[in-house]
Amino acid sequence: MSIDRDTARRVANLARIDVPEGEIDGLADELSGIITFMQALRDVNVDGVPAMTSVTPMEFKRRDDEVTDGNFSEKVLSNAPDCREGYFVVPKVVE
What is this structure's pTM? Predict the structure, then answer.
């Protein structure tokens, strides 16, 4: 697929990139190369290839998904300038 000057100019505008008029042809060629490469990747047969998150084999540590309060309220409140009864005290902002 070939990207023309108008399309390259539009892509640069959408990406908020200021491309001088003399460099539009180069940008169009680079975008065409990217599209050609992506099309080549689309044609690669990946049937039977498992999805990977890394090139080295690894297992993720798993834990039960439990909702808790974190048990850190004393630590969190220790940094507060003012707290009472387990809550932050803030100035009144609504009359």
Answer: 0.51
